[in-house]
Amino acid sequence: MIRILLKPAFFSLLLAQCCFTAPTPTNILQRVAVTGASVSAGYGLKTPPTKGNLAAYPMDFTHVMDAMITVPHDEVGDFCDLMFFRSSRKNAAEYIQQIVAYKPTLVVGIDFLFWFGYGSVPDGIAEEEHRMEKLEFALDLLDTLEVPLLIGDLPDVREAVGRLLSQSQVPSEEILHSLNNRIHTWIDSKENATLLPVHEYWKLMMQDKEITVLGTTWPEGTKDRLLQKDSLHMTREGTVVSGLLVAEIIGGDDFETDATVILLKAAALARAK
Length: 273
Description:
The chain has helices spanning about 10-15, 25-30, 60-70, 90-100, 125-145, 175-190, 200-205, 225, 235-250, 260-270, and strands spanning about 30-35, 75-80, 105-110, 150, 195, 210-215, 215-220. By secondary structure, it is of the alpha/beta class.
């Protein structure tokens, strides 16, 4: 079972923002912003057909988050891009600026850092140096956000090589370890940041092991229910698991936690847009 507890200081910034009202998960969920690359943007996700409506509508992680939050809240802000990788520095900088203007109460970045650890390395530059420099650029951007952050570390997606990724885009196991150590150190140093254990969750999924989140268990042998055939992107059900990880970290009282209900509500939201 994956379980990461919130830092005691995670809610501290909201204390000043909420006119000295005691900070709660409800405050945090008032105005959520999701930012990231193709996993957050819903690569390959479509709504299932319904009676009288066979059309397939694009669906993404913001729909899942919106569907899960059960307390009054603004529509979840969408700062994600399927093509984030084409210009990761430019896209990230623009999204951070937009998020600052949006004034969220919580920022969720499951895969915001992905293309700052992955991607091709220019000729003549040491691989670890290049990847670490890119990661520092992204962490500096996140440093400008003075609200609670839930940030994912980097999964090991070597099985996607030969599908959507080339070998040159994937860091070695040792470099990936160094990059994640840096992410963890940065999060430990930030009172407003908490880790989303993407690497740990991905490892369990790729090993086809049991995953339990907020009382729902996906038994051994159900990887194909959670992961698309490209070994890089989540299915609709896998995206719900990601949302449940967020809810488990914050505390599940203000979230719908039934995976079937979440999927139905998220699909309805996607069709309505």
